Amino acid sequence: MTGSRNYSRRHWMGVASLGMAGLLASERAGLAATPLNTSRALADPRSAIKITKLEIIPVHSLRSIFVKMHTDAGIIGLGEGTVEGKIETVVAAIQQLEPYLTGKDPRQPAHHWQAMYRHAFYRGDIILTSALSAVDIAMWDIKGKALGVPVFELLGGPTRDRIKCYGQAESVEETKTHVLAEGYTSMKTSVSSTRGRLSRASENPYYIDGFVEKVKAIRDLVGPDFDLGIEMHGEHEPPAAMQIIKALEPFRPWFFEEPIQFQNLPLMAEMAKKTTVPFATGERMVTKWQFRDLLTAGAAQLLQPDITHTGGITELKAIAVLAEAFYADMLPHSKEGMVGFAASMHVAASIPNFLAHEVPSLQAANGGPKVDRSPLGKSYIKKPMVMTGGTILLKGNIDGPGLGIELDEHLVDNERGIPEWQFPEMWDKVDGSVRDH
After folding, report:
1. Which amino acids are annotated catalytic?
2. Which residue segment(s) compose the domain that 29 sits in?
3. Which residues contact 381 (CB under 8 A, 6 or more apart)?
4. I want to staple 280 with a disulfide (CB 3.0 to 4.6 A). Which of 46, 100, 302, 370 is the partner?
5. How many domains does the chain have?
6. Of residues 407 and 36, which shows the higher confidence score?
């Protein structure tokens, strides 16, 4: 583009129906290989937009909370934030953010994130950051819709055209029906309990061999040209965890996830030095500051922040940038809802150090009407996502304005009567002592 052009207000009104995206596309004709759709911008970028209210929707079948952020421009942003088993607590935290947000311009998510986080005085609490996640994601959605572009365009543009996803299975049969049949080329399986019990501080060969038999059977099925991660879920004490890791190394795992709880990062770092298989962790961690400590300690090479916990799009992008400086890759966690999943994929699409993405497992909840659901969004969003060869293409899935998704209009009715999910209690089978979850 040569020179600069001045447009009068009269000229702007003449092209307003095309939107700002169309104006920019016309100015830069020939510079972009794929010009933006010229009719999707919903607002003049110079016009004021104000948040008017938050509509909070508990989604118990997903152990989560959706948020609709309403504006005086008629643009509604979607967000999600949760602490599983603490939905009422997080709903209250989101409600406490509403007075600050009301009357503010939602197109400044980074600024508002700083204000809500830093003015809270107490820092790094997962209840606050989960509430922040919900409203931050909604603001990015509004900003994308207002400009008529996908969120990943606002984050620097796509670095890839598809998002690799991995499946999950707990047996050979599930691997056949839930992973291979659905076209995945990677997966993970858990090693939480075997031989009818949870692990002790240090274990015997009989117990450890239970995990070996399971992983060997799955590896024999999927073959060597297949990524097979091991989910340990922080449920083992360090000696037993190290015994399990050493016993499973011959099967060349893709990663060991949450080998121990994250509170002792120096110990996790020492364990990481004793194996060539990378550690993955981070689903219970929040904000760039906690992940800075993890990276500095060298405790994990694959980071698993969950966008619905860690602070939303603004903070997930910051964590990814930080990780890049440590040559660490992103393996985002995503066990709850479709809004957070879509938001996380927008970040994954925009960063260079992305490895693969978890798919929401749609945790089963008792009660409520019988609704046909799917892991990719049926009965949650109007247009469920489509998996192609173990990946989700940006085009046709999340390339619409904002997050690129709309909630199913029957969502609230579908959720009616479903009770809030709670984490199961975990006790030692022998002496009744408390075990980690």
Report:
1. 233, 333
2. 1-39
3. 338, 342, 405, 406, 407, 408
4. 302
5. 3
6. 407
